[in-house]
Amino acid sequence: MRPGRVHGVAWVLAALTVFAGVGVTAGEPASPLPSKGLATASPAVIELGRALFQDTRLSTDNSISCASCHPLDHYGSDNQYRSHGVDGRLGETNAPTVFNAMFNIAQFWNGRAGTLERQTDFPVNDHNEMASSWPEVLSKLNASPDYAERFAALFDDGLTVTNVQHAIAEFERTLVTPDSRFDRYLRGDVEALTASERAGWRLFKAYGCSACHQGRLLGGNLYTRMGLFGDYFADRAARGDGDPSDADLGRFQVTGDPEHKYQFKVPSLRNVALTPPYFHDGATSDLLSAIRIMGRYQLGREIAPEDVALIGEFLRTLNAPLGTM
Ligand code: HEC
Ligand code: HEC
After folding, report:
1. For 201-239, how does the pLDDT look when each residue is reduced to its tens digit (9 = 90+)?
2. What is the phi/psi pair of residue 4, to 5°?
3. 294 CA from centroid of ligand 2 (Å)
4. CB–CB of 38/238 below 8 Å?
5. How much distance in Å is there from the Cα of 279 to the middle of ligand 1?
6. What is the pLDDT of residues 87-118, one digit of tens each?
7. What whole-number distance in Å separates Cα of residue 9 and Cα of residue 230?
8. Please, are residues 204 and 210 in contact by the beta-carbon 8 Å criterion?
9. Cα–Cα nearest to 323, from 193, 174, 216
10. Which residues lie closer than 8 Å to 243 by C-beta, 6 or more apart?
11. Atom 5 of ligand 1 has which residue's CA nearest to it?
12. Which atom of ligand 2 is nearest to the CA of 263?
């Protein structure tokens, strides 16, 4: 397939992306990640956020921290098909990474949290995750002289829910992973990718993957239905891989609009080769099989094995070094 022959939807979406100012490098539907995140708080607040992110006292039995499901030394993803919360309770969806999450239009597969601050309400209170509550968390943190002092030094109003959320969110706004080889390529270093990786990138655009996976994250900036072609959920149930669940309803759970049933935020593909399993239901851990599933259900075609392999090679160029995180 020639790169010029892009799926019709791709053009429309690419044009919308330009108008939305999402940032497109020299005609490419993707742009490099900035070298720094979006945090504006002082280093002391960010360090406080890092400590809170890794503090198990945010869970009711002091067993689980944010980092339990989003390990910082593991690209912010636990590599579980579904995460285990307190008492080993199984969650309803696969855990996306927290790295680069600051660039998403909203948080969660169904976008139910508009900000990283608001996002923290969910895991703290979720029965399957931390099973706690803010009053419980605050009283535990208050009992720790170290925290009480740090909050008092940094905030006029000391230890409050808002300040806990702010510190965690600001820490998350430092979790950017720049300098993948693909970023270097987008900045003009053509040789940063091998010939077959460049062929994979051309195929990614030519098949129309970039209609949905575009911008800085190659994702994260729109919602689309899972199964534009064919019924992904009926097929999954027919295979015996899971009956439809509430979480499968996607964006509909947030808006109640029947048009939004089975719509999900298009996930970022940054570091994707390092963060299996894939999809909201963790349906597969194999990157090449995820590419085939996308071809079948999002583009209505069986992608030839050699093209799947090349697209896979391209996706691996989105792996970035972890640096000091
Ligand atoms: C028990 C495991 C677990 C714990 C603990 C947990 N998370 Fe998550 N996290 C998940 C899962 C699962 C999702 C996806 C849920 C969904 O989309 O419905 C998620 C989603 C997210 C997202 C959205 C990412 C995106 O791309 O949409 C962010 C940000 C996040 N978590 C941060 C945190 C923070 C901060 C904490 C601690 C306050 C935390 N998580 C605690 C499992 C966990
Ligand atoms: C019409 C929009 C659309 C198109 C086109 C599309 N995708 Fe996706 N992609 C999505 C959505 C939505 C999801 C999440 C689906 C889910 O979780 O159920 C996704 C998920 C993925 C994932 C899993 C990421 C993760 O972390 O779980 C990969 C990998 C992926 N897509 C690659 C591709 C490739 C390669 C192509 C082209 C062959 C492609 N996509 C085409 C919308 C699209």
Report:
1. 999 999 999 999 999 999 999 999 999 999 999 999 999
2. -65, -25
3. 5
4. no
5. 14
6. 999 999 999 999 999 999 999 999 999 999 99
7. 17
8. yes
9. 174
10. 237
11. 66
12. 12
